[in-house]
């Protein structure tokens, strides 16, 4: 049944995108100067996404990608279906600007495996990146999880079934730099049996506004290309004999609560070290700070899939 839903979704999206692409190109031919201005509060980036799986078989690939970074308080138009600046500040407990890194929808289709919110604190006359919010969407189901992390370095128990070739065990180690001319994000997967077996990185550079005068054409079919890469390499993994893993909702309906429990255990483990006598002690924190952290579960918010996966 899911395969039928997937095929119907692909056909429907293809027809919509083809129709809107024709409309877009006709508008540009009729009025070439009608391209929308790219606001100074939006930065455009170009670069690559790289994936490497080392076990149980080796498989790696990279593809070109384009992203936009929106100042959520200043940009005139921002993609819908994301957090607002005020919502992100409440989650991150920050008081400064919030920027959203994402692939904007193109001709009626959206595909964002990962969007990031950069949350700044105002300290005197400077803006310091304090926290990031990850917004992870799985393909093809369209479920989404949002969680807070420290961009300097953080580890979160895996909260979402992002691939039919990965189980729910293990954790994501994630780092990100403050977005400037160069922007990067690195994620590695730590698994109890496979070890550090998967790495994904995004590395992009800011693009001159003059090069991309028309954002609609700059991002034309970008989400579609990302989807094609995802499906093509899923097929290649299946062809290499990697086991297909069913969505956990079929055999473990409480998988989200289980993910929160694993993350709480992970945070407790990371908050303590062992002294010379082998007893647990706080690493670089007072016992009160560690107790507060252990009682403060990570804020993970899930959104169920939309039709046809609901």
Automatic annotation (TrEMBL):
Superkingdom assignment: Eukaryota
One Pfam entry name: DUF1365
InterPro entries: DUF1365
Name this polypeptide is given: OLC1v1008643C1
Originating species: Oldenlandia corymbosa var. corymbosa
